[in-house]
Request: fold
Amino acid sequence: MKKHNFYAGPSILPDFTVKNTAEAVINFAGTGLSILEISHRSKEFEAVINEAQSLFKEILSIPEGYHVLFLGGGASTQFAMVPFNLLNKKAAYLNTGVWAGKAMKEAQGFGEVVEVASSKASTYNYIPKGYSIPSDADYFHITTNNTIYGTEIREDLDINIPLVADMSSDIFSRPVDVSKYAIIYGGAQKNLAPAGLTFVVIREDILGKVERHIPTMFNYKTHIDGGSMFNTPPVLPIFAALQTLKWLKENGGVLGAQKRNIAKAGLLYQEIERNKLFKSTIPNVADRSLMNVCFVMNEEFMAHEKPFLDFVTAKGMVGLKGHRSVGGFRASLYNALPIESVEALVKAMQDFEKSIK
Amino acid sequence: MKKHNFYAGPSILPDFTVKNTAEAVINFAGTGLSILEISHRSKEFEAVINEAQSLFKEILSIPEGYHVLFLGGGASTQFAMVPFNLLNKKAAYLNTGVWAGKAMKEAQGFGEVVEVASSKASTYNYIPKGYSIPSDADYFHITTNNTIYGTEIREDLDINIPLVADMSSDIFSRPVDVSKYAIIYGGAQKNLAPAGLTFVVIREDILGKVERHIPTMFNYKTHIDGGSMFNTPPVLPIFAALQTLKWLKENGGVLGAQKRNIAKAGLLYQEIERNKLFKSTIPNVADRSLMNVCFVMNEEFMAHEKPFLDFVTAKGMVGLKGHRSVGGFRASLYNALPIESVEALVKAMQDFEKSIK
Reply:
């Protein structure tokens, strides 16, 4: 049975990516060698990383002056690299979830950190607005999509200090005005590639303003100068990322993705509103994530939580259990998830509702 | 044509690893999902990482008190993490090659660094001996195998301060007395897994002795406490590492590997000595690496260098060009390289010699 993959990450990738990667594990680019065994300095792999970087720029419409880096270590490593490279005196952070909070905490090891606003007291169920950002901060850090809580900043903010965004779970889900950001980074294991790859989009002129000693591997300059090949990069995940980017380009780019994501999330949120068993955990509609739809059973039906999970599991749906800090359910609807999977979930919600007296 | 893969890394892996990984990209552990798309928190993947850690310990006979970590970022990240976590006042380094030198340079950002000996002046063509290690150093760092120059420290050193070893290119090639090391680390892309995975074997009691603030991801304690799952680990490379470890166990473990490696390297070094065209770049036989065999044309045959490379390339041999800092040829004979590939190279050397008047 073909599974409906609602995992929050690592998560579903396009069939095109899976199929081409499986082939490359056997024979990469006609070399007679596996992608597992090929030198990263081979001309065949250099073509892959170059094309992946240029397609990344093309699809996100990245302006001149920015670099695309493919690194290891995950977004959690970026939580430290950002302040290592940018924080002179003071940084400002918006606290919209566990990951945003971890990024903020990490920065405290490097200088003064101002939390401009936090939704922590309400289990992060909204995106704070109307906060003020200290104009003397070196940068302002946001997490555009909060995977655990199901909230999302769906528009590019206009602010007047350098903006740094963790876009781990919504990169490529919509058009982004990259010129408004100094750095966009993220783990690739949602909308791009398998686990083990971190992307960093960085405007070069943001660097060189801190005095501290930065170890070589934690210095963005190292990776810019090395064309993301200072040391051996994660070869297979970069190959897979290229496949996803090709698939995305063929399917209307980020505008096409956005259209499909609005349709998929719309379908599910509509059913959550309609169905007497469920409710969204995010009251403010504008704050609801298109990537991670969090919902719980209404109080009076709470006893049906486990049976509902069993019900959908039996229908081949995986990854629907909510994060322990929210409970209930979470359906992750990343780019590669077909609308048929959302339709199957909606149908299961309706069927289950009918079965409840 | 089946290729003979002599790449220095990423490099040849067992067919068993390649085949099982290709299958897992299509359907991992009967989940109906690709290993590219599976949650690292799924019970199926947790079984993989647990088995990989325990087999790693079993095959290397790792005593109690040590942890096995699977991280991202490559050995180059460890160059900084080691002093970040261990260097209080002073560290001692043995400079046996470019990578050893990079590790040493990185440590200079954290405290006093003593270079106990260096073979740099002779293009690193030997392993220094008879040096003295300051007894008040926090640790002594060595690179057991020098991939670029073809030298190797083939025995475990007896010293009386904590010993830290980069074993990127000879891990699992021979038995190691792990109890003599505080930390053994390396990139996995030679004898273990595809690029994107770093292994760290660490004795827990070595930690907690420095005062400085260590960012979360660069603190070994984080990864020990998180069971190497503090953040999303490189899922597919860990799966592939498990396959290689299973293959190694089936094939006599590290003793079996050592026996085969001695036979393979012996065959090639013998031909280099015998053949009038070639000579080893490492005069001292005891210092010659079993993993990376470096050799050059004798002066009078130098004009045949390019033709010889073309000759072996036409026979399906890849990765034999020497590193630019040494020139000539380098044959990497990692665990997974079959002796048939070495025999084919030896035969090609003999055939080419006959063709030269």
Remarks:
- The first strand of chain B starts at residue 4 and ends at 5.
- Residues 275 and 350 of chain B are 7 Å apart (CA to CA).
- Chain B has a mean pLDDT of 97.
